[in-house]
Each structure stands twice: as structure tokens, then as C-alpha cells.
Design brief:
With 221 residues, the chain is of the alpha/beta class. It has a single domain, classed as 3-Layer(aba) Sandwich (Uracil-DNA Glycosylase, subunit E). 39% of the residues lie in helices and 12% in strands. The longest helix has 17 residues, at 129-145.
Length: 221
């Protein structure tokens, strides 16, 4: 699959129906909703990335959250993971606001682009390996079209493995804080800022911020 612009790719992502289980699940969630968002209209479709098309920093998450991005229509928006992402980007000069509440909240990314390895919210946040492989064609095209990217941050093992599969890297293993260079890009790894990690203390704020401070230093140098 070759697409010549990011906007065309994003339109194709939104229309995608390649994974029946995921398409069924995100529609079900959008229809049934959850009590605290019962009055809201859910996005309920595959979700494209967003940010600066000329970005030097690319952030790859796992997938939209069922009641976060799948509700709001923007990646890392409307949930606790989005709070952590927006705050760290703002504090390091990559975003105009420290919060990410809804798609029309005025948040803009500065020299950064956010996407995910899987474009649909999966049940229990666990896509199958087949679903991740199927969706990897979109991430591959994003990497091709985001021509200025110099630093890539992978949030979690699934994002890390998806990127390495696309790039053909076999000798690297996921761990928080790991970094390596591949051709003209530096790959950084972090635990995903999910509640499972942040509320248990597995991922502390200083550890999280350190990854983005390193990314900023790499780009400034």
C-alpha cells in the first residue's frame, strides 16, 4: 500500500474494516457507552494519528482507549493516559496545552505526531497478533510519510514490537528507557502510561518525563 499524503492515509484508516472483531467491538462500545459518558456521542470508528505533519518526534501508543480516543475521536484524549501524554508534551515544549480532553479543545502538537500500532480499541486493550500485523501497514505508511522524524518513542511492548517488525529489527528487546539508533532515527522505549502502570507505581512521573527530556535533547543536538 502506497499513499502519497498523510490526509489520504488518515481517511483510509477511518474507513478501515479489515479486522471484523475490532470493528464490531468499537461499534458496540459506541452504542452501549458507559454511564459517565452516556450523554455523549462516541466516535466509534478506527482512529488516525494527529499532530504536526513535519514532526521530528513520533509517539506510538498501543491503541485508542475504548472510552478515551474511541469516544472523543482523537488519540490519547479524554482519559488518564491522555492526561499523562499531554502534560509531558507541554512541559517539554511539544504541545500548546497540558490537557487533552476532547478533539476540539485547542490542543496542538509542536514538532510532534501521535499515532498507535493498532487503530481500533481492542477488547481488554489486547489486540491479537494477527490484528496488530494487519494494522501495521498503516503505521508503516505513517513512518514513510512523516519524512522529518528523527526520534520515535514507543509506548509499551506492542508498539515497540510493531515498529521493530516494520523496520526489520530483530535484536532489540523492550524495556523502559531503552534506546538505540536505526539508520537516521533514535528509538526510545517507555512503559505505556496506562492506569495499570501509573497507579501501581510501575511508571513514575520522573521516569516518564525522563524519556521526553531525552527526546528533546536528541532533537536539539
Amino acid at each position: 500500500m502506497k499513499i502519497d499524503t498523510l490526509s489520504k492515509l488518515n481517511k483510509r484508516i477511518i474507513r478501515c474494516k479489515r479486522c471484523p472483531r475490532l470493528v464490531s467491538y468499537i461499534r458496540k462500545v459506541a452504542n452501549e457507552k458507559t454511564k459517565r459518558y452516556n450523554q455523549e456521542k462516541y466516535w466509534g470508528k478506527p482512529l488516525s494519528g494527529f499532530g504536526d505533519p513535519s514532526a521530528k518526534l513520533l509517539i506510538i501508543g498501543l491503541a485508542p482507549a475504548a472510552h478515551g480516543g474511541n469516544r472523543t475521536g482523537r488519540m490519547f484524549t479524554g482519559d488518564s493516559s491522555g492526561d499523562w501524554v499531554a502534560k509531558v508534551l507541554f512541559e517539554n515544549g511539544f504541545a500548546t496545552k497540558a490537557t487533552s480532553m476532547h478533539a476540539s479543545d485547542g490542543l496542538e502538537l509542536i514538532d510532534a505526531y501521535i499515532t498507535a500500532a493498532v487503530k481500533c480499541a481492542p477488547p481488554d486493550n489486547k489486540p491479537t497478533s494477527e490484528e496488530a500485523d494487519t494494522c501495521s501497514v498503516y503505521l508503516e505508511q505513517e513512518i514513510v510519510l512523516l519524512r522529518n522524524v528523527k526520534v520515535i518513542i514507543c509506548l509499551g511492548k506492542i508498539a515497540f514490537d510493531s515498529l521493530n517488525g516494520i523496520l526489520g529489527i530483530k535484536h532489540q528487546k523492550f524495556s523502559h528507557g531503552n534506546s538505540f539508533t536505526y539508520k537516521n532515527k533514535t528509538i526510545l522505549s517507555s512503559y505505556h502510561p496506562s492506569r495499570q502502570n501509573t497507579q501501581t507505581g510501575r511508571l513514575k512521573w520522573d521516569q516518564w518525563n525522563e524519556v521526553f527530556v531525552k527526546a528533546k535533547l536528541l532533537l536539539n543536538n
